[in-house]
Sequence to fold (289 residues):
Amino acid sequence: MPAIPEKPVLLTGAAGNLGRVLARELAAMGWTLRLTDIHSFPEALPPRAEFIRADLNDGVALLRQAEGCGAILHFGGISVEQPFETVFGPNLRGLYHVYEAARREQARVVFASSNHSIGFHERPQGNEARIDADCAFRPDGYYGLSKAYGELMGRLYWDKHGVENVNLRIGSCLPEPLEARMLATWLSYADLVRLAAAAVMAPRTGHCVIWACSANPASFWGEDHRARIGWQPQDTAEAFRARIAGKLSGDPVVERYQGGAYAGMDYTRAQPSPRDHFALDEAAGSAGS
Fold:
């Protein structure tokens, strides 16, 4: 029988696709859950779970829901690319409310970050090294920018207040990978659940960042802090390679960058040849040194 947290766990975004998976599977493991979302919970509540409908912009409501909780699984907020004003409230102000609640309760935050916080890194070619979790943020839109902000807020609250946080840079979490890029980025539901459980149950985490993808040989990503929580993915996208390896977008921007379609949205700069962005960045750095 898996270990069970001593205190209730608050799950935001519980009515979303990933929130429902976590609510169902963690409850089946015997966890006591407090669920919240701006939308009504669309399924029968799992055992040992209660649901309160609330907006992340309502800091008082979030403080009340977090009372007595030992961890907050923060999966709430805007989960796709949207205009800045749409993203701002739930993803920036709402995250502040989550961290203030965690500070008061001395609860750990497990934050659903995203690969889109680093989406304008180019995909590795051939024997090029994968990027590690300490790479520079290169968000590919306002959604990715909000995730970079979230990781930095975790850094602040750890350094200033000792609030532990585990930042999950989620790749493509779906029942199955759908196109060629997901041979690198896919995260199975089962690996997600194991990852969330390990992040909550680890004895100590500090501030850490984990590439949340399954054991994909084609992954874009290298070293991270998963050893701190004892998590290793068990599934792989390779089982789907024959079906999806040829499913490319045909868009050179989408295929160049790790963020895929998000990098191509509203892209207006002249398209340089592959690797020219790195050359330009290095030249700018030399000029400013």
